[in-house]
Amino acid sequence: MPTVLFSAPYMIPFVERFRPILEQHGINLIVAEVRERLDEENILKYAGQFDGAICGDDQFTARAIAACAPRLKVISKWGTGIDSIDQDAAARFAVKIGRTLNAFTLPVADTVMGYILAFARRHPEMDREIKSGKWEKIPGKALHETVLGIVGVGNIGKAVTRRARAFGMTVLGTDIVEIDQVFIAETGIRMTDLGTLMTQADFISLNCDLNPTSYHLVNPSTLSLVKSSAIVINTARGPIVDEEALIAALTAEKIGGAALDVFEVEPLPNNSPLLKMDNVMLAPHNANSSPAAWERVHWNTIKNLLDGLGIAYNDQELYHA
Question: For the whole model, what pTM was predicted?
């Protein structure tokens, strides 16, 4: 009977719901203690004990995969991003990787627009002021007066573009791959280079994958280009932003603010200066929040696990469990 390391934090609270279908297919579970993700050392504690993994952003490094092989056959990632998995090592040791493409496009795009509206209309500030006993009219901006820069025009970047254009925003985009001309014609997005985007945008939304070209893409050099009123929004991956550089820019009022759903270290340390900044909105890596999306990803993650282990199943039975 195969054994599976079960460490996806969004699924663990409902493990008893999933256990029967997995046991029905002959699978034993090791349910890990995890808050956000397992690091390399924690994975190594389980090395040699499991044939497959259902995980979140666990750090399946080359060392971890080598230690878990040859028994490990599949890593089924809850969600889309697999930057925490060493894909070259997985290929070397014939470990399959499963994920759900386009898993959270709509809720993440909605989250980006929520941040844009909050900063443009200054709702958090007005709420704080009136609750403190002040009656002061704080000026905001209409979205059609602003420019949105989208870094990474993939599925989420495209969804953000469509929402922003519905509000009348001017949208700039940049990407390392060529974007479909039909989409450009449909939305009116203007593709440009990163420097131009950083210089002209009032809102900068990071929607790219984490890879060697995007690591610390927002850094002292690129931050030096932005308007002093610009807002940086990161709902992608924490390490895309050099957090120290962002904090320095915010402290020096070289940028207007930031909305961060992801961080270089998660959970965000209690001593982070970001926690005391009024011009920053923070969330606990939760832009994907959507019961419907979560449900689809839960079952697709199980499907990918079964596929990777070579276990036959009935689609109707699986998705209606």
Answer: 0.94
